[in-house]
Design brief:
alpha/beta; Rossmann fold; 10 strands
């Protein structure tokens, strides 16, 4: 057990880590700050301060999906730094391995991913030009398409991580020094649902 002495007190680092993990798990599952505080035996203000210390951003729920991506780890790291909620990236080899498992498996996999994406306000989609347009017609939220090239793409494409981080900062703002910093204005293609259920492509500044 990792123990730390502070004056006359002996602090268990392991116990603190477990407590923080429990608090965050309960909050992410939907419990209120007051409910969590009562369950774990702390003040509600402690839960609030804990969330404030770890907060990267607030606002809309954002997902990042892309294939075929060459520099997956770089892209994942950039998304994590910007507080993206859900990341799903595939290389061409991974995409083909899924396809090799048969039609039923692919169908179920696609449905599973689409069901997850329906829960997000904004989906950033890295793919070929035709696939970007297709996803925009399916999802309820906004889809920001970043084309990796003309269809069909048969080899992995390197994502410009610097441009991606700039796009993410423009969309959600990144907290720096206690302030939310908005990026410079830029143009992006955004797909948005019409009331009739049909999609349209609108151009706006984000």
């Amino acid at each position: 057990m990792d123990l730390i002495r502070i004056g006359s007190k002996v602090i268990s680092r392991e116990r603190l880590t477990e407590l923080v993990s429990e608090i965050l798990k309960k909050r992410s599952d939907g419990a209120t700050q007051a409910e969590v505080a009562y369950d774990v035996g702390v003040e509600r203000s402690f839960v609030s301060h804990l969330e404030g210390l770890g907060e990267m951003r607030r606002g809309e729920h954002i997902a990042l999906v892309g294939f075929p991506v060459e520099n997956k780890q770089e892209v994942k790291k950039a998304a994590k730094e910007c507080g993206v909620d859900f990341v799903y990236l595939l290389s061409e080899r991974e995409r083909l391995s899924i396809a090799d498992k048969g039609g039923a498996f692919v169908f179920n996999e696609v449905l599973s991913i689409l069901a997850k994406l329906q829960k997000f306000d904004i989906v950033i989609f890295l793919a070929s030009d035709k696939r970007v347009k297709s996803l925009g017609k399916i999802l309820n939220g906004e889809v920001i398409g970043v084309s990796l090239g003309r269809s069909p793409l048969k080899t992995d494409k390197k994502v410009d991580v610097k441009e991606l981080k700039s796009l993410l900062r423009n969309i959600i703002g990144i907290k720096k020094g206690g302030k939310v910093e908005k990026g410079r204005k830029r143009k992006s293609w955004i797909f948005k649902k019409r009331p009739s259920g049909k999609s349209k492509i609108i151009r706006r500044r984000v």
